[in-house]
Amino acid sequence: MLAFVDESGKPHPSDPSIYSTICALCLPEQHSRAFNQALYDIVKEVYPEDDPLAKEIKAEKYLARKPFEYSAQRRQVVRRIAELVEGTPLSFFSVQMKRPVAAPNWQKTTLTPSFRLLTERIELHMREHEPDGFAKMLFDERDPGADAADSRSFRSFISGTAEGQSWSHVLDTPFFVSSTITPGIQVVDLLAGATRHYLILRDAHAGFTSDWENEISALQALARTKTRDFEMAGYAYYGMYFMPERYFDNPPGPRPLLNS
Question: Is this model's pTM higher than 0.85 or not?
Answer without folding.
Answer: yes
